[in-house]
Amino acid sequence: MRHFLCLNDLGADGIITQLDRADQFKKTRGTTGAGRPLAGKSVALIFEKASTRTRLSLEVAVAELGGHPVVLTSAGSQLGRGEPISDTAKVLTRMVHAVTVRTFGQERVAELAQHCSIPVLNALTDLYHPMQLLADLQTVRAVKGTLKGLKYAWIGDGNNKANSWIEAAGLLGLDLTVACPAGFDPDAATLREAIARGGRIQIVRDPKIAAQSAHVISTDVWASMGQEAEQAARAATFKGMGVTQALLDLATKDVVVLHCLPAHRGEEIDADVIDGPRSFVWDQAEARLHTSKAVLTWAMGLDGSNAG
Ligand code: CP
Ligand code: NVA
Which one of 59, 134, 136, 261 would you pick to mutate in the ligand 1 pocket, going by the greatest count of ligand atoms within 8 A of its CB? Predict the structure, then answer.
């Protein structure tokens, strides 16, 4: 069974293969060459947290691939009233052909995968956001023509996005500097594993060190979903960690600025940066659609290879 709970489930070659396939989906979108590989198939899209891009991209991806998307939210389903994940998994297996889930703990996605006999894809947990990372990498590759030989910076919270960047750096052997305040480091186990795999990753406190000579600068909100009560305290702690034009001036002149959105202008990123010429955030958002098509068809064994 092909689950996609974290980037490691794809591996280094798998990531590149899915990026190539995503480029193909981008090229053929709206043409007869696009095909309808999900014809006759339904995909459940479970959201236990809010979403704009992930829901849009997955729902549109499934529809454009010829399948039927079924959205379930906590508020409108029995999951939100405490129905066990294992029971939900068994019902999903009888009804649909794959399931994507956005939730809190990574263990909830793992439990769903354990009890489902259909592919399960992680559409964001507190620990990882692997689908977003595929979109980020597709965007970098489209602009730079390569993922190799670049200096990557993560500036801000050591959150789910940071952890997925670290996973990507480990698998692909990238040079990544993470700048975050003490006490807001990324996941220690993910970092250890990524370094052991060959990622050249360092954690620093000064965003200027990360930005220096960077080819790619990424950031994200300071308080993620589920941390809303900490928003004010985090804003105070993270002061000075925002991506500003002054930081960009330290980077390479054609630096690529990424933010998976939603963004808070004036906090983790300034308006003149996110709305400026080095920002590729709209391409990055669109890439969610192409990469979702790639990874969905891969997980469902509809990519022309054997799903096993
Ligand atoms: N980037 C991203 O996952 O956005 P949403 O929360 O809107 O889905
Ligand atoms: N780190 C953010 C990403 C949102 C797409 C969150 O988890 O809320």
Answer: 261
